[in-house]
Every structure is written in structure tokens, then in C-alpha cells.
Amino acid sequence: MLHRRTLISASAVAAAAIALPRVFAQQAKLEKSKVSIAVGGKAAFYYLPLTISEQLGYFKAEGLEVEISDFAGGARALQAVVGGSADVCSGAYEHTINLQAKNQFFQAFVLQGRAPQIAVGVSTKNLAGYTGIQDLKGKKIGVSAPGSSTNMVANLVLSRGGLKASDVSFIGVGVAAGALTALRSGQIDAISNTDPVMTMLEQKGDVKIISDTRTLKGTEQVFGGPMPAACLYAPTDFVLKHPNTCQALANAIVRGLKWLQTAGPGDIIKTVPETYLLGDRALYLASFDKVRESIATDGLVPAEGPKTALNAIASFDTAVKADKIDLAKTYTNDFAKRAKDRFKA
Q: What region holds the Solute-binding protein family 3/N-terminal domain (predicted)?
């Protein structure tokens, strides 16, 4: 009996010895296990996949120790990566185009959102008699942070109404309680922001929505095609030097996207931090229902998406020359494809 137990123990040890190197080898493949991610307004639904992947331990499951730093807007999060204090940015895809126009090469490697989820609304108090875009001339427009995607959408709406960015004043208000306060207190006349902020303002009658990209249909109307939105992107050099790390990050996000496809309202409430609800669970969930279809399903950047983004930016930003941008260098679907296959997303 003892002999048999010894044999079993020896077999178990041998099996463990064979299995363990594989586990460690898998972890050792990560060129960088500690990764810092900068995000601009983590509480917004725009970045819900990032929060879900973090809260459910999907980054840890990939052998990653992820530190997420939250900034007032995407432009500030980008500055952290450009400045070297963060490795990866969880931000808007179009930043990769703007950066390339400045001869800085960044690459998106997993998509979180397939619509910008940004709505533009005018204050029903400050602009009660609003009739059209021209009424915004000389007014203050709240955005998450100057230079962020909320700013970009506002610029696009203004340009289509015959106004330039210089015809208004942009004020950074964040994407949470500060944005609500700025609009309701009359500090700003209009706002370009994400959910849950916009739905909360809309349902309380504080704003009149004049442009909406929270749905795929609305995005098509505003941009004329599919518009990639939130993604993980990093300097191209980082992606090239850390392919296994980027794969692990993409795996975690795509796993989060798959979870979100079947998650119910109760699942969301249990998973996100209480502060994200902004004191109103019902409105938070109403916001989630509104933007749910705009969340990416498999992490892949749609084929026509980059061109849609480039055309939109070039239409109002003279610094971006469409014929000078190499879109193929702004993103890769290689990591997301592997993650999609692995998790059947």
C-alpha cells in the first residue's frame, strides 16, 4: 500500500514538474508583466470594457499586473503615454491619426467601442431659444478635456453648422459629477460628453440633444460610416517590442467584451464601482441600455472604420492631410483576432 502511495506521489510530482514549467514559461513570455494604462474618464461607459476586465480579474488571469491611472479626458491620458509615465492608453482611436499627422506613430491593438458614445446637447436654461448651430457662436461648450474625443465630435458638429472651433470656448468638465454640475449651474452653455452623464442630463430635462453617436445608427448619421472609438493603443515601438504583453492585454479586453454580451443589469451594478453610478442606479442602467450596442463585440477594428475617422478629422482639422496618413500603421487586428479565436467572442 505504501509502495503504491509512493508511486502515486512520485507520479503526481512528475506530472507537476512537467506542468509547472509550462505555466511559468507562459508567464515568462510576457516581455513586461507590470503595465501602466492611462485612461481619460474611466467611469464613462466609453471605457466599460476596461473596467470589467479589471474588476473581474481578467488582466491578472493573463499574468499581468495592471495599474490604471485615470485622467480628466483622453487628451491628458495621451500626454501621460507620450511623456513616458504610462505604457498604454485606453482612449479614442482617432488619436492615432492625429499623432501620425505630427509624425508620432501609435497603434491601436484592441477595440473597446464601435461607436463614440458621445452626444452633444445645449442647455435648456442658457439656450432656451436654441434654433441651430449658429446660436453656439461665442458660447462655452463643456468637453471632457480639450483635445479629447468629446472635443473632436463637438468640432465636427460645429463645422457642419458653419462654425469653427475658434468661434466657441471649450471648457474641460470631466465625465462625471463635475460635468453635471457645470451644465446645471450655468457655467457652460452646451456640452459634448459620454454616458451616463448625457442620459442623466437628458432625462432631467437639462439639455436638448442636437447630435448623438450613442447608437450605431446615430454614428452612421453623424460620421457617414462605422467609427472605431475606445481602444487600447500604444507607441508602435512598444507594440513591436512587447507583442506577448499586448496579446495578454487584448486577451483580457476581449474576454471582458464577451462577458458584456450576455451581462444583465444586475451583473453590471455588482461589477462596477459604486461611484460610477453617480448616485442614481436606475439612470445608470438606462444609460447602459442606450449605449450597449455601441460596445465592441470581438475587439476588431472594422475595415472601413479608420477611413471614416480620417475623413471626419480632415473635414475640420487642417493639420491633418488625408493623403499623408497611412491608416494601416494606425491599428492592427492581429492581437484581437487571436483573442477572438481563443475566447470564441
A: 34-267
What pTM was estimated for this model as a whole?
0.88
What average pLDDT does range 301-324 have in this prediction? 95
Alpha-carbon distance of 92 to 108, in angstroms, equals: 9
Give the per-residue pLDDT at 72: 87
pLDDT digits over 16-38, tens only?
Answer: 444 433 333 345 489 999 999 99
Strand order in the sheet with 65-71: 65-71, 34-40, 88-92, 230-235, 106-111
Does an H or E element contain 296, and which?
A: none
CATH (one of 3.40.190.10, 3.40.50.1700, 3.10.310.10, 3.40.50.620) for 30-115+227-343: 3.40.190.10
**Residue 39 CB neighbour total at 10 angstroms:** 27
pLDDT reading at 216 higher than 80: yes
128 backbone dihedrals φ, ψ, rounded to 5°: -60, -30
CA-to-CA distance for 117 and 198, rounded, in angstroms? 10
The total of other beta-carbon atoms located within 10 Å of residue 333's CB is 19
Q: What is the pLDDT of residue 8?
A: 41
Whether the CB-CB separation of 192 and 208 falls below 8 Å is answered with: no
